[in-house]
Amino acid sequence: MKKLSLFMLIILLMLLMPFSLLQTQPAHAESTQFINAEENTFLRDAPSPSAKKLTLLEKFSKVTVLSKEGQWSYIKHNGNKGYILSKTLTKQEPKKYEPKKAPVITNGLLPKANRSYTYEPSLEGGAKTTYKAAVNPDIRNSVSLMEEEFIGYTYIENENSFELGVAYSDVFFFSLSYPMKEKSTIYDTDYGIESDTKTEVTVESTSTTLKTKAGTFKNVVVIKYPNGSKLYLAKDYGIIRVTNFEGEITTELVSVK
């Protein structure tokens, strides 16, 4: 009788042992993590890159990780459950990238005086030409680029406009209104002719980075005219490039000394 009772006790212990081990085995703790992929990622119904896509998870989304299976994590997000690659998760909340706001240009486009600016093609669209920059004593806030005595151009800048004209004349190539805000429309008071006609032009960008032989320029102002031609202006340099309606370069700054 005692042997039978002992046998029954052993059988009972064997039956209870797996359940007891299961109960004492630590369960995977849920954790809050964040999507840290380069792009938005899909939640899938199985741990496989070819599994059905359930929903799209945006970068930086907060998710609840329920368990892990190899390289995959089983997660919950907004009532949806599924799998994503574990490498796309991070425990630390990532800092969202906020693009810098394009600057609003209100001054500073005058070229620096006492330097030589070489253009190829020249400002006339011809052969390579060097212009010497000097402050024009007769006009407030102006710098002249002279090819030789009495031959050249004059930039003028004030709180309302940025202008370029033929030196010692009343002829202006452009007179662009300030402020210049990216994706906005401004006026060119003298569009290629000597007149007071206002032409609407587009400030295509105030944050372009442009590389020429003269160097790399940041926060370049790109002005687009109705015919498709473009004017590229840089702080402390003035014109650094001009393109025609076909995108061909008709003037470009290639050297500054």
Automatic annotation (TrEMBL):
Supply the alphabetized keyword list.
Signal
**TM segments?**
none
- The stretch of residues making up the signal peptide is 1-29
Please indicate if the UniProt record lists Heme as a keyword: no
Q: Which residues form the SH3b domain?
A: 30-93
Q: Which InterPro entries match?
A: SH3-like_bac-type
The protein's matches in Gene3D superfamilies, at most eight in alphabetical order, are given as: SH3 Domains
Taxonomy, superkingdom: Bacteria
Task: Give the protein name, as stated in the record.
Answer: SH3 domain-containing protein
Give the species this sequence originates from.
Answer: Solibacillus faecavium
**Could you read off the lineage of the organism from its UniProt record?**
Bacteria, Bacillati, Bacillota, Bacilli, Bacillales
